[in-house]
Amino acid sequence: MAKPEYYVFVCSQQRPQGHPRGSCGERGAAGLIPRLSQSLMARNMHQKVSIVPTACLGPCSVGANMLVFPGEVLYKGVMADDLDSIVDSHFVNGQPLAAKVAPDAVW
Fold it and tell me: Residue 51: is its pLDDT beyond 70?
């Protein structure tokens, strides 16, 4: 496998129901990895982007979260329906999808 151009860390944290911090898991994170993988495969980009499931990325209140390197771009409130737009904007066209980028104040 060639060295990926991007690494996408997808929060998979699942805390118990009612936990004060909440979690990306209760905001639909479980469905993000398979959907992201499908979106990348459909664009023949699965070799350029490595998907890494991870635990908590920090700002639980704005999850589900994804962190992209290089560039240290944190996407917030990511839903499965956002992934095609993120892939097209960020990985195909090289521009983070501004509508989903977490502001600096969040993290």
Answer: yes
From the list 95, 83, 84, 102, the residue with the least C-alpha distance to 28 is: 83
What domain range is 80 assigned to? 6-48+55-106
pLDDT of residue 1: 66
Q: Is residue 74 part of a domain?
A: yes
Residue 23, classified by CB atoms within 10 Å of its CB into exposed (0-12), middle (13-18) or buried (19+), is buried
**Among the listed residues 59, 65, 50, the one whose alpha carbon sits nearest the alpha carbon of residue 7:** 50
pTM of the model: 0.91
The total number of structural domains that make up the chain: 1
Asked whether residue 92 is domain-assigned, the answer is yes
Q: What is the tens place of the pLDDT at every residue in 59-93?
A: 888 889 999 999 999 999 999 999 999 999 999 99
Confidence at residue 35, expressed as pLDDT on a 0 to 100 scale: 96
